[in-house]
Amino acid sequence: MDSVTSSVTSPVTSLLTPPLTPSAAVDPLDLRILHALQLDGRAPFRRIADVLGVSDRTVARRFDRLRGSGVARVTVVPDSSRTGQAEWLVRLRVLPDVAPAVADALARRPDTPWVCLVSSGTEIVCLFRTMDGAPAPLAGLTRRQGVVHADAQRLLRHLTGHRRPAGDGTPVALTDLDRRLLPALAFDGRAAYPQLARTVGWSESAVRRRLEELRESRTIRFDVATDPRLFGYSAQCLLWLSVTPSRIASVAGALADDPGTTFVGATSGPHQLLAVMVYRDDMALYDYVNERIGALDGVRSVETAVVTRYAGPFGLLLGAIPAGRGS
């Protein structure tokens, strides 16, 4: 928890967008707790309390309120470059009247950590993680009534600076326990060891030991999912960019450093980059696309899609908002 001690004053969070309620209001202490959990998602509440100068009961009570109201949760994200998982960005063209049902069905799948509706519900964009490099399971999706088109492209590399894989790139052979444990941790990264043991059907000691091994090898990382409106961002947008091959790295680096950019990744297909950003209003989005992206050398075209809503109880986005940044 040393990293918490050194930098617990500014929240760094991922995104989700369930409806906010009056009971979900947050204050500076809530944000500092979320930041501490971003640095160490399983840090004991007592340790966080010692750093923040409050009681561990206060920390536990506040986090339980944030999680219970749908404002925050801790999740675990595997380093797919080490686990052999393939990440697929899938875009579904759908009829608006069936879009919510299709999106919610996707959100219930264990292999889709991120599902959103864009462009007023005429399209669904989701991320599939498949084992052993398997293709995205499109056949079942295209048979659903109301789905008129499907496209899948590999997410080749995460290019957001603070989200580059932390491991050394050495492949990790996933065990049967891992295949059960990782989905459980993705749903609740702070689940207690007895609860995890019951969920995966292994002993508590085996679960505890394996989780520590995965953490120490940097095969997994912790993220805190929150609502971007807590930080003054009213909307989110996906941007697909077509970029000259020799300029992909420089454009990605420029986007990753921009305020409001939460994720940048390299993809296969007609677009070389996907960027996810948050913004305060439509004028801010217009100015960003026109003035910032339009000025980047190598950008040939950009396609934008405004996020309508995220599906499921937590719509985990791909990256994180650095505190104190805005667009």
Key features of this structure:
disordered C terminus; eight-stranded antiparallel barrel; four-stranded mixed beta sheet; globular; 327 residues; alpha+beta; disordered N terminus
Structural write-up:
It is a single chain. The chain is globular, with a radius of gyration of 19 Å. A hairpin with a 5-residue loop joins strand 9 and strand 10 (273-279). The protein has helices at 2-6, 28-39, 45-52, 56-68, 80-83, 99-107, 138-142, 176-187, 193-200, 204-216, 248-256, 282-292, and strands spanning 12-15, 72-78, 86-94, 114-118, 123-130, 147-158, 220-226, 235-243, 261-267, 273-279, 299-310, 321-322. Helix 3 (45-52) packs across helix 4 and helix 9 crosses helix 10 (204-216). By secondary structure, the chain is of the alpha+beta class. The strands form two sheets. The chain has an eight-stranded antiparallel barrel. A four-stranded mixed β-sheet has the order 2-7-1-12. The protein contains twelve helices and twelve strands. The longest helix has 13 residues, at 56-68.
Topology record:
Blueprint: H1 2-6, E1 12-15, H2 28-39, H3 45-52, H4 56-68, E2 72-78, H5 80-83, E3 86-94, H6 99-107, E4 114-118, E5 123-130, H7 138-142, E6 147-158, H8 176-187, H9 193-200, H10 204-216, E7 220-226, E8 235-243, H11 248-256, E9 261-267, E10 273-279, H12 282-292, E11 299-310, E12 321-322
Parallel strand pairs: 1-7
Antiparallel strand pairs: 1-12, 2-7, 3-5, 3-6, 4-5, 4-11, 6-9, 8-10, 8-11, 9-10
Helix pairs in contact: 3-4, 9-10
